Structures are given as C-alpha cells and as structure tokens.
C-alpha cells in the first residue's frame, strides 16, 4: 500500500510505516486542492499537517484512500463528515505536542512582559537601550486562559508554578487545576486578566470569536497571545489596539492565511509593530513533539490499515480491538441501523465461523463491527456481507500478514 506524507512530517513516521511494509513518499510542502485531486488516486494512506485541506472534492477524487493522519492537534482542515461518509478514517495527535505549545506560550509571556523582542532588535542594530521602562515581572499577574483543554490545563499548571494567578473560561465543564478559577463569562475573564491566551479549537463556531469588541473589554496595557487558530482572531482589530496602546504587546503563532511551503512570503498587518512577537506556526515544532507525533499517528494509520483498529479516530466509530496476533479478522463498516449486528452474526453462524472475539461501536450514522475468527470466512459469506444493503465496506486481515 502507498503512503503519501506531506508538510515535512518527522522521519520516524516514515521508518514506522516502511517497517510495516508500506511504500512511503515524503514531501516537504502542502498541496493545493487541484494538486491533491491529481495526486491521490493510488494513495492508500495520507499524512498531513495544518496547511493541507481535504475537501469533499478532494475525497471524491481519492478512491483508494483508506485513512488520513493529521500529524498535529487540529482536524478542521479535513471535511470529517465527507470522510466518514466514504468510510475514510481520520486520526490526529491530540496530546503529543501539548508541552511544546505550553513552553512557547510561557516564554512569550515573559518576553512580552520584559519587552525582550525590542531589546534584542536594538542590540542587533547596535543600540544600547538599558532601561526598565515598560518592563515587568510576571509574578503576581493574572493569566486568563480561554479554552481549558489539554493545552490550557497544562499551561495553567506551569503558570501557577511561576507565580501567576490563573483564571479560565471554557464553554465545556472543565475541572480547575490547582488554584485556577473558572470565570462565568468571557467578559468576566477579559476584565480581570493581565494576559489573555487563546487555546480554543478550530470548529467553525470559533471563527472570528475575538475581535474589536473583545479587545475593548481587555484591561488597558494587557498582553494578548494566540497559539490556537488564526481564524479565531481579527488581526486588523488587534493591530489597531496595539497602535493605540490599549494592548501593550501580543504574540501570535497562527494566522488567518499562512504560507503553504517553507520559504514562501508571509504577509500580515501585524508585521513591524513594537512588542509583537510573530512565529511561523511553530508551537508544536520541537524535535520532541514532532517525533512523538510521528510515532503516534503513524501507529494509528498502520493499526487501521493492517488490523482494522479505530481507537482515537475522530470521525469513525471507535473500536479498540486488540492486536491481531492469531487467526483472522473481519471489519464491517455499515450504516447505523437496528438489526445490522444480528444480520452479520447470522451470516457468521450460517458459515460455521468459530468466533474468538467481537467488538462493536457506533458513531452518528456509522456503525463498525470487528470480528475475529479462528479460520478464514468462506468467500460466499464474505460476498454476502460486502453486498449487504447497509454495508459501507468490508475488509479482512490475517494475523500472519498484519
């Protein structure tokens, strides 16, 4: 089976997949929609990061595609419903780069509070500017975290260890870590925070959630950080608040429009502003994080393609089937309707199958049954399942080749 990995995914992913028998092609950049339509026929597994967008049109043009691995946290660059309709599994790495993003944010808080970006620029220009003007400690300041998930909670813990007071707002019920306080509304958080750091996901409802109105509600001379999604923030409104002095500094790692490949030109209304740190979407770009992501997602892709395992899939029913070490396995993805499992088991019984394990899960309009048997199922039984009215696909695996 052929694997295409885009956007400079860590070489460990290549090693893992090649060791499992896949033919792997690694590319450094992303592909446009037209390029994907041309490239994906014949590709069975696709690895991407945040800059490659898989639309319905792209998925329609990928008849051989079994699964997509997002070698990052977010999956909003993939049409998940269209993928599920076609039985294409999508995996991501929800935890692997958490620490790297948090360390970047902590460093940015200190750099903004001490205005270090300006200091180093002037030193490189030959200017000795030894002044405490506008420079502050972060101890005792209040950090407001918007989005209290995996990254937000770890940021909360490290920030408290540095002496920051932590408040947070999340639309979901989240357990407060340490001495962090939940705020009832985003407005309450903005009124109290000295530093606001965004850590929300890329769901469509979050687009444009932080604009002129939200900046106006922040404390005068507060700091702003966006390491979440570029489309969440109105960068023009942020620029106006930086220029007016209402916001004392900002750090952004994500942008509404980002270059597609290494070395491409970068445009932003925030370029050239004092005490504004701009980084090229490198929150998770440490060697440690990228290696862990490569290991994690490559393992999920191989587990699905070779054994039918869907644990941590973001769009198909999650079946945590054990590793296939003996016998045979049948995977049956189907429309989620009553009676399908009974009909599957009827076919197995008629075929005299010796079932050694069976695992079932449903998700939305899809159901997934994994059945392990001692011996291969006869071809007529497999054909009957594959041609069933509610079948999306039927696949089989042998422990000797998985």
TrEMBL record:
<comment type="similarity">
    <text>Belongs to the D-isomer specific 2-hydroxyacid dehydrogenase family.</text>
</comment>
<keyword id="KW-0718">Serine biosynthesis</keyword>
<comment type="pathway">
    <text>Amino-acid biosynthesis; L-serine biosynthesis; L-serine from 3-phospho-D-glycerate: step 1/3.</text>
</comment>
<dbReference type="Pfam" id="PF02826">
    <property type="entry name" value="2-Hacid_dh_C"/>
</dbReference>
<dbReference type="InterPro" id="IPR045865">
    <property type="entry name" value="ACT-like_dom_sf"/>
</dbReference>
<feature type="domain" description="ACT">
    <location>
        <begin position="329"/>
        <end position="399"/>
    </location>
</feature>
<dbReference type="InterPro" id="IPR036291">
    <property type="entry name" value="NAD(P)-bd_dom_sf"/>
</dbReference>
<keyword id="KW-0028">Amino-acid biosynthesis</keyword>
<keyword id="KW-0520">NAD</keyword>
<dbReference type="Pfam" id="PF00389">
    <property type="entry name" value="2-Hacid_dh"/>
</dbReference>
<dbReference type="InterPro" id="IPR006139">
    <property type="entry name" value="D-isomer_2_OHA_DH_cat_dom"/>
</dbReference>
<dbReference type="InterPro" id="IPR029752">
    <property type="entry name" value="D-isomer_DH_CS1"/>
</dbReference>
<keyword id="KW-0560">Oxidoreductase</keyword>
<dbReference type="InterPro" id="IPR002912">
    <property type="entry name" value="ACT_dom"/>
</dbReference>
<comment type="function">
    <text>Catalyzes the reversible oxidation of 3-phospho-D-glycerate to 3-phosphonooxypyruvate, the first step of the phosphorylated L-serine biosynthesis pathway. Also catalyzes the reversible oxidation of 2-hydroxyglutarate to 2-oxoglutarate.</text>
</comment>
<dbReference type="InterPro" id="IPR006140">
    <property type="entry name" value="D-isomer_DH_NAD-bd"/>
</dbReference>
<dbReference type="InterPro" id="IPR050857">
    <property type="entry name" value="D-2-hydroxyacid_DH"/>
</dbReference>
<protein>
    <recommendedName>
        <fullName>D-3-phosphoglycerate dehydrogenase</fullName>
        <ecNumber>1.1.1.399</ecNumber>
        <ecNumber>1.1.1.95</ecNumber>
    </recommendedName>
</protein>
């Amino acid at each position: 089976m052929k694997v295409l990995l885009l956007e400079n995914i860590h070489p460990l992913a290549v090693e893992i997949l090649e060791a499992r028998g896949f033919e792997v092609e690694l590319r450094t950049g992303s592909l446009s929609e037209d390029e994907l339509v041309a490239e994906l026929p014949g590709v069975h597994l696709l690895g991407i990061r945040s800059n490659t967008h898989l639309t319905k049109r792209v998925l329609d043009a990928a008849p051989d595609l079994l699964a997509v691995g997002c070698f990052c946290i977010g999956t909003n660059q993939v049409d998940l419903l269209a993928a599920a309709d076609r039985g294409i599994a999508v995996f991501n790495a929800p935890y692997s780069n958490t620490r790297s993003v948090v360390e970047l944010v902590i460093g940015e808080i200190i750099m903004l509070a001490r205005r270090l970006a300006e200091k180093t620029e002037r030193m490189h220009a030959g200017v000795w500017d030894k002044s405490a003007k506008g420079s502050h400690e972060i101890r005792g300041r209040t950090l407001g975290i918007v989005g209290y998930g995996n990254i937000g909670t770890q940021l909360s813990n490290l920030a408290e260890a540095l002496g920051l007071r932590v408040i947070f707002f999340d639309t979901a019920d989240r357990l407060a870590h340490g001495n962090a306080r939940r705020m009832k509304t985003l407005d309450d958080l903005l009124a109290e925070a000295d530093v606001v750091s965004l850590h929300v996901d890329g769901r469509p409802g979050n687009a444009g959630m932080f604009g002129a109105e939200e900046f106006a509600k922040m404390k005068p001379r507060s700091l702003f950080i966006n390491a979440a999604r570029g489309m969440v923030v109105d960068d023009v409104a942020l620029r106006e608040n930086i220029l007016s002095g209402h916001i004392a500094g900002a750090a952004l790692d994500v942008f509404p429009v980002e270059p597609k490949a290494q070395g491409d030109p970068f445009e932003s209304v925030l370029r050239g502003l004092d005490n504004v740190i701009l980084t090229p979407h490198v929150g998770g770009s440490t060697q440690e994080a990228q290696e862990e992501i490569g290991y994690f997602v490559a393992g999920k892709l191989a587990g699905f393609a070779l054994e039918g395992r869907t644990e941590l899939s973001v769009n198909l029913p999650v079946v945590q089937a054990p590793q296939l070490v003996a016998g045979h396995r049948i995977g049956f993805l189907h429309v989620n309707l009553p009676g399908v499992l009974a009909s599957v088991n009827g076919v197995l019984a008629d075929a005299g199958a010796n079932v050694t394990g069976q695992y079932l899960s449903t998700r939305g309009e899809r159901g997934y049954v994994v059945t392990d048997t001692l011996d291969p199922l006869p071809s007529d039984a497999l054909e009957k399942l594959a041609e069933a009215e509610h079948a999306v696909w039927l696949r089989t695996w042998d422990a000797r080749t998985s």
